[in-house]
Amino acid sequence: MTTLSIIKADTGGFVGHSSVHPDMLAVARKAVRDAVGDGLLMDGTVSYCGDDVSLIMTHEHGADAEAVHSFAWDTFLRTTEVAKRLGLYGAGQDLLSDAFSGNLRGMGPGYAELEYTERPSEPVICFLADKTEPGAWNLPLYKMFADPFNTAGLVIDQVMHAGFRFEVYDLYEEKRIWFDTPRDLHDLLMYIGAPARYVVHAVESATLGIQAAATSTQRLSLIAGKYVGKDDPVMIVRCQSGLPAVGEVLEPFAFPYTVAGCMRGSHHAPFMPVGLDQAHPARFDGPPRVVALGFQIHDGKLIGPRDLFADPSFDRARSQANEVMDYLRRHGPFEPHRLPLEDLEYTTMRQLEHDMADRWEPLAAPEPVVPASRRG
Ligand code: F6R
Ligand code: MG
Ligand code: MG
Questions:
Q1: What residues does Mg(2+) 1 bind to (predicted)?
Q2: pLDDT for 264-291, tens place per residue?
Q3: Beta bridge partners of residue 238, listed in sequence order
């Protein structure tokens, strides 16, 4: 078995939270080259979306492997050093712990890992997003793997016809459940339509019995008990030969659906598919961005990437996202642009409740209504 790991962290922004500095990428690229040279990794590449650096790696250590996670941690310490030296914003933001122990769970960096036996040809797409949360993958995963209006193969490909199995996490109560589509479709949607709490963690083919997709599912705000940065998610999707075709995997992003994140991690805004040269949130720290990096994996080597959203067929999604942004921005601090109180990443509410406690007074009990027949 080979493992494809995407491990990512925000270790400093250039400028503000909008992007990463090229010197940070250079340091990370050297670390990955060395790790390939030392035999720790089969292959690796470094990419980004907004202020997050992603290490995309193939190796034989399995998921949650100490060797690979500690390598990623050390690499993020190095990019943090660069960020500190240049005075970049929020240096080391996602490194929540003082020291590494065992694996990265609960330590800040996000990761998606998929263990697989390489097929004769292995096309894979790595999605990286900024200014949103892991539940942002729920809608496109549903469309790719369960919606025949998106994925023609569900109807006309014999291998896909039996459907897919979704593994869903409850991030609040730390438990999981499986749904087999199409049979459990309506149950699945009841849960994953609430993406702040229920997040698709993995998808498997019913016929092939192989894993087709993996997402990162950490919520930094819950881990740290307070806001420390939006847990910008990553996702791996394998394609073709009985799995959704590359074009079926990209298709859901032609609709710039609304996600939670954007300014201060506290607003709904459209999800904009972009090429790497546009992966820098700007307006209102948004709109949230997603890049799609396509690879052919061959003998563990990452042949690529192809920057799949850098294509005119996604121009309309980008311009529609700008229109939706105009519309939502006009709501200012009102819902549904601003998130409901319980989902805010930043809040002054607790302080306000405290400060204003003695200014609130109970409403007087209503006067009893006397029927007209008994009046006067
Ligand atoms: C959202 C995000 C940004 C920041 C905002 C304020 O995920 O990263 O929108 O929340 O720029 O940042 P601070 O509080 O660091 O000034
Ligand atoms: Mg940041
Ligand atoms: Mg970010």
A1: 10, 17, 51, 93
A2: 999 999 999 999 999 999 999 999 999 9
A3: 124
Phi, psi of 80 (to 5 degrees): -65, -40
Take residue 150 and report the two structure tokens written for it: 């998106």
Residues of the chain with pLDDT under 50: none
Q: Helix (H, G, I), strand (E, B), or coil: what is residue 36?
A: helix
Q: What is the DSSP letter of 346?
A: S
The reply to whether the predicted model has a pTM over 0.90 is yes
Residue closest by Cα to atom 6 of ligand 1: 264
Residue corresponding to tokens 């995309």: 56
ipTM: 0.98
Nearest CA to ligand 1 atom 5: 264
The residues that bridge with 215 in the sheet, in sequence order, are: 235
Nearest residue by C-alpha to atom 15 in ligand 1 = 90
59 lines ligand 1 (CB under 6 A): no
Give 288's DSSP letter.
-
* For helices 66-85 and 22-37, angle between their N-to-C axes, nearest 10 degrees: 150
Tell which residue, 23, 45, 22, 13, has the closest CA to residue 32.
45
Cα dist from 66 to 56, 103, 305, whole Å: 16, 5, 26
Give the CA angle between residues 177, 141, 316 to the nearest 5°: 155
Distance CA 321, CA 257 (A): 8
d(CA 376, CA 363): 28
CA 266 to ligand 1: nearest atom: 1
Q: Is the peptide bond before 336 cis (omega within 30 degrees of 0)?
A: yes
Active site residues: 10, 227, 230
- 160-186 pLDDT, tens digit per residue, is 999 999 999 998 888 999 999 999 999
- Ligand 2 centroid to Cα of residue 101, in Å, is 24
Domain ranges of the chain: 2-359
The verdict on whether residue 98 carries a ligand-binding annotation is no
